[in-house]
Amino acid sequence: MKKLLVAALGAACAFGLVHAPSSTGPSLAGTSLGWVGEARADAPAAVNTEIMVMHATQEAAGSIDPRIGNMPQLTKPPFSAYNAYKLLDKKVVAVERGKTAAYALPNGRTLQVSVEPQPNKLYKVSASISRPEGGAFLKLLEVTAAPNEPFFVAGQTYGKGSLVVAVTIRP
Amino acid sequence: MRKPALTQEDLQLLMRLADGEVSADEETRAVRMLAQHPDAHDVVLETMTLGDWVRETVEAPTLGFDISGAVMARLDIGEKLSPAADRPTLPSPATAEARKVLAFPKSAPLRWGAAAVAALAIAAGIAFVIERPSSTTPAVAHLDPVAAPADTVGVAVDHVESPNGVSVFYLPAALNANASSVVVWIDDDSPPAPSGTAAVPSAAPSQVLHAPGEKK
């Protein structure tokens, strides 16, 4: 055990040296100031953001609404807990930089989205979902997303199933 | 009456016990200590947990997408820090089964490999602690990049905050099998996390997926 701890400590120190902050390249989860400046120079004033709302249920015969399009994630966990997906709404919103776009969900809650272009054509997307009675269902979600790659916010009880919200940057 | 704190010698003995490096006499002493001293359990469990993690990692060092296209990472937020009473309890140390549980393989190469992996784990832990926001707001998680499954991430969660229980799943993306998309599943039925509860980010990619609605 002693050997293990000594080796661990040594390697940890080495890792610390290697892990020292650097601004030599973009990172998906973190961005150096230089990159932010570069990204803002040619960033569009608004970013098209697709919001798709689906209703997931468990039915005798499973089906995926063809209007949803090709979304293989829905057949995989955790979505495979449900076998029927129906498209409730699909909309592309032009989210202006520095502003928040609001979107009314079918359960009365409000989804708010803001988008900030990042280096290498990545986007920092912030989302929140507020309850009509006050308070937040999702206080804050921040993701870094590549264009045309959806991220999902799921779990809201709706009808006999659950709401699945897919957000995709469509530059 | 509260037992006196474990001495340095006691700690070393317990760690050797967890490593399976004790003699028969030492084992007897250690087992007695386990039976009498509540902190001794914690020491052995923590040492064993590290050992388990190391062994699992050495046996399966490559991270990647699950064959079923499932989950590479999961994050539970809003769960209470497990009180001592909720921790897995060690079997009675007096039994042979307990000795079996406590016995670790003594392979030297494995141990050196394990040391290297443990070092990385500790380093990653240090980096995580350093980069964590100082706020202790309940149900808040800041996902360090090391928690993301790969450098080919289509979507990465940087931060998620909700009064409800949250799980984060990484899935293969639709457009690029090497990238990932993310599902943030918020349990609408779970009661809000009580104020003061610390978030326990645990995005180890090897964690098991719980399907929605499944008891975690």
Task: Describe the protein in words.
- The complex is a heterodimer of chains A (171) and B (216).
- Chain A is of the alpha+beta class and 171 residues long.
- Helices cover 15% and strands 43% of the residues of chain A.
- In chain A, the strands form two sheets. A five-stranded mixed beta sheet of chain A has the order 2-3-1-9-8, with no helix packed on it. In chain A, strands 4-5-6-7 form a four-stranded antiparallel beta sheet, with no helix packed on it.
- Chain A is globular.
- Mean pLDDT of chain A is 81; it is low at 12-39.
- By secondary structure, chain B is α+β, with helices and mostly antiparallel strands.
- Helix content of chain B is 36%, strand content 11%.
- Chain B has helices spanning 8-19, 24-36, 38-59, 96-102, 108-131, and strands at residues 140-142, 155-161, 166-172, 180-186.
- In chain B, 34% of the residues are buried.
- At the A-B interface, helix 1, strand 7 and strand 8 of A face helix 1, helix 5, strand 2, strand 3 and strand 4 of B.
